[in-house]
Amino acid sequence: MKKNLLVILVILVSQVNLYSQNKYDTNSVDGVINATYDILSGEAGERDWESFKALFHQSAKMGATILGKDGKRSFYGFTVDQYILNNDAFLKKSDFYEEEIGRKELVFGGVAMVYSAFHYKFSEAGKIEARGINCIQLIKEKGRWWITSLIWEDESENNKIPDNLIHK
User: Fold this and answer.
1) Across the chain, what does the average pLDDT equal?
2) In 3-state terms, what secondary structure has residue 151?
3) How far apart are CA 3 and CA 71, in angstroms?
4) Of 1, 51, 67, 83, which residue is the least packed, with the fewest Cβ within 10 Å?
5) Residue 158 CB contacts under 8 Å (≥ 6 apart), including other chains
6) Is the pLDDT of residue 17 over 70?
7) Euclidean distance between CA atoms 22 and 24, whole angstroms
8) Would you say 153 and 132 are in contact if contact means Cβ atoms under 8 Å apart?
9) 95 near 43, Cβ under 8 Å?
10) DSSP character at residue 27
């Protein structure tokens, strides 16, 4: 009996350590969204990819819709690890500042849907290169919030971010 209790205690302690590795606030939807922008933004160099991955549920998916020159949208889906692989080299050599400029959030129990309007720049004081919307779904599990899906689309001439989504 004592051996079983010890095994359970070891498992619980290891799980607490696993979930406390992330130095960002995962107890609130706001904390997870802010951490996502914080980790990706900054001067050229290493990003804290371990903390980034710790924001996402193990089965999370990411993706982007791209508007082609022909006016048709294409969807490109990938895993969190694929996102890191595809963006790590760029972020090591280039400044990148993505900032939330507005948000609409709906939470129902342990499920959240967030439309997060953003813009990004290639220097902190530089010009805005593009704007768009991150569509983020989260779930609350094991006492914290996890991103399960993050899909974005950049703004275009015929697809503007609604005014009511941007902070004034």
Assistant:
1) 89
2) strand
3) 64
4) 1
5) none
6) no
7) 5
8) yes
9) yes
10) S
